[in-house]
Amino acid sequence: MRASLVAAHALLIIFLLSPIAHGFHEGGGEEYCLGCHNIYTSEGSQESSSALPTMITLKGSDPSSTCLRCHAAKGANQSVLSNDGSKFTPGGDFYWLQKTFTWTEGGVHYQSEADSHGHNVVALEYGLHADQRQSTAPGGRYPASSLACNSCHNPHATSVANGGAGSTTSLLTTYGADPVGDTTNGNYRLLGGEGYKGSHQGSGVTFTHGAPIAVADSSSWIETDSSHPTYGSGMSEWCANCHPAFLNSSTSGAGGKHPAGKGAKLNADLVKNYNSYTRSGDFKGTLSTAYLALVPFEVGASDVVFLTPSSTSGPGLGNANVMCLTCHRAHASAFNNIGRWDLETSFISDSHPQFGDGGASGNDLINSYYGRDMAAEFGETQRQLCNKCHVKD
Q1: What are the angstrom distances between the C-alpha of 220 and each of 27, 79, 229?
Q2: Distance of alpha carbon 330 from alpha carbon 308, whole angstroms
Q3: In a domain? residue 90
Q4: Per-residue pLDDT for 27 more than 60?
């Protein structure tokens, strides 16, 4: 305990004395430690002191509640939890974890359950609880009761060994971009790298895959067709740290799983489909404007220099591949299985939530598709967005 307190005290002194201004998780500014922790010393102070710390606690009651003190702040650019589903971040809005939708069709009762809408992080101060349907991660063994923001994200912005075991804290750039000035290149979105323990909560899972190569615009967290993360490589492999049974990088789709990963390359036909498809029955699209944020892909690059978050181009032939986030969101969505769209209906216009559904309120319908009026943009007869690649409509 004393060794960890000494280490924390050393880090605190480093960051309090640093004259360099950086983003919160990038290792600069006196708020770096005190923003999340209460640090008590023998003198009873919670500020910097020459006395060694005697106790370090989280500001929140649990790790995720501590994170959400900033990341659920009303009106904050970095918020990932709203009170109406209006945070259109690439990962999704944890709001949907609190919404269960019910409806009846042809006398049959249907339900889209809250626990199926995302990764159920435990943040008791914000009404977020462990998944009640399953005790471990689907396709893996990460315990649902331990799932927290720091299960995936390393809040201390470590960089050595890809943010894994034995890493040290540095002044980082954390959106995957090239390092500038006195920063070093941190993992995309602070994702834990090879050797990361999946937080301190005794998950029993050690990451075997490094963080993905990806870049996002640090000035905007709103995902659009022209401002979005650009994924280079390794996203599906990283997801497999907790969901190993779902990783299938083969183009054969063996085992009934949709191929996803570095080996799931988009062949010539799939590339042509993606770039020409604009909506059901319309194939007049072009490569330069083909990108659809609802159906992203990996470009197949291992260096961030080839990644542009403002690109509107579709995939090129030879390197692009399908990944887990092509069809699913990382945090939460309005749909079962964290779908980017409703995976359980034939027509997008029939997606749930809809007006009149039990549990639906406010702007749930339009917010579920990130403010896009899908019927107006794609037509009432738009079918599943799988057709962006497969054209089965």
Answers
A1: 20, 11, 10
A2: 20
A3: no
A4: no
